[in-house]
Amino acid sequence: MTASDSRQRQAPFAAACRECEVEQGVDSANELVAFYRRHSRQTDHDVVVTRTDFAFDLPTATDVETVVAELEAHYENGVPLGAVVAATSEQGVPVGETLEELHDVRLTGALYEPRDDHVAVV
Amino acid sequence: MTRWNNGRDEVEPVSPDITEETNALPARYFTDPAVHEMEKETVFGRYWVYAGHANCIPDAGDYFTRNIGDREIIVVRTHDGDVEAFYNVCAHRGSAMVEETPMTDPGNAGRIKCPYHLWTYDLDGSLASTPKSFEDARLNPDLEDEDVSEPDAEENALMSVHTDRIGPFVFVNFDDDPMPLAEQAGSMKTELESLPLEEYHLARRIVSEVECNWKVFGGNYSECDHCQANHQDWVRDLELLESELEVNDYHWILHYQHKEDVDDEMRIHEEHEAKFYYFWPNFTVNMYGTADGYGTYIIDPIDEGRFQLVADYYFKDPDLSDEEAEFVRTSRQLQEEDFELVERQQRGLESGAIAQAQLGPNEHTVHKLHRLAQEAYEA
Ligand code: FES
Ligand SMILES: [Fe+2]
């Protein structure tokens, strides 16, 4: 590692595509989702979250309704999608799968989107 | 006839007769930022717009805020028990005074105090006090203290906004000389006021941000030709062919008949049907056939391509029973299904392919919405 590398700040969040062997560091949880959207649009690959920087422990459930319910304690006005995918990714569920799951559960009426890319329990 | 966009943007005004070819609002009115800006005045600056529910601010000093277009208002319960509305703007140097306070979590203040230089207003808007520094001229060598007159309480009052009510529903109007609410609401006012709306309390509020123009959602709410294909769970218990659409001056009502007679206990109103009121420009009242309660939607534009749906649910007891919670969830499911439709429609409109769409003969409620929009733009 060079001196300049070590001075470089490590991004607090990162996601990776196993197939392409790329990892992307980002500044906020929701940018993980943005990275996924970009990457899957171009390559159709799913991605996993590889680094997070939350001030609290992520829920260990895998069903998204429970995950959102537990995360709501830490947020006002909706849980960022990035936090949800980070939690489920830790349990082995890739980002794209979780987003699909979230979409399905929204259609049942159990979740809603108080603002863009944030979800809450009805 | 649909007018495809051949690059010449040939469109015509919304025809008064629905059988004519050009019966829909041209596509650009759903996508153009300039139209959104214009609507702040021509639509939201002129008609009666729903602000909130009087039950949410029961005691003197209770208030919530609302943004309508660019205007920010405070809706407050006064000492006389009235509900009044003021611009959230200080008479001194124009500072906004209170922070955004939703109806679900109202604030309470004995007085309205501006945080900037502490001018303080009574709940009726009149200026109650100013700090000492506004009563003497000690820092200004050119003025004697005697030259300083006390600010007049009424002349320096907050700027009030016209309010009126349909039962507990509080409406505001920013026009200098608005048409009476009773005129805009017509029979909807008498119908709703015959119901014990104030015996019900806000139990849930679900706010969603949706990516389409507010009129796209308004149009979707106003017809149910899409229901069979898109709300299969919901239509199962409905007699869709028996439904009726009633069009009035500034509101229209969708009447839905249930297949089975619903239990009498299960609803607030008398008819054996569900009734959905759309009140121009952006308010709906949802009278369900299957719940002893009602709902309202506020379809609040954010910009030309986004709006916020504020869905409020009112029940006798704000603590929901399991059935009521399930009911809200089902209603939420319907919204979510509609969001898919309206966001897809917006995408199509924004693609630029279409210059002017067309409405079917049974989309007369949507036609009314488009006509009212055009009337507002032209006024
Ligand atoms: S601006 Fe409100 S007190 Fe000065
Ligand atoms: Fe619908």
Automatic annotation (TrEMBL), chain A:
<dbReference type="InterPro" id="IPR057410">
    <property type="entry name" value="HVO_B0008-like_C"/>
</dbReference>
<feature type="domain" description="HVO-B0008-like C-terminal">
    <location>
        <begin position="69"/>
        <end position="119"/>
    </location>
</feature>
<protein>
    <submittedName>
        <fullName>Uncharacterized protein</fullName>
    </submittedName>
</protein>
<dbReference type="InterPro" id="IPR057409">
    <property type="entry name" value="HVO_B0008-like_N"/>
</dbReference>
<dbReference type="InterPro" id="IPR036388">
    <property type="entry name" value="WH-like_DNA-bd_sf"/>
</dbReference>
<feature type="domain" description="HVO-B0008-like N-terminal">
    <location>
        <begin position="15"/>
        <end position="48"/>
    </location>
</feature>
<dbReference type="Pfam" id="PF25215">
    <property type="entry name" value="HVO_B0008_C"/>
</dbReference>
<dbReference type="Pfam" id="PF25214">
    <property type="entry name" value="HVO_B0008_N"/>
</dbReference>
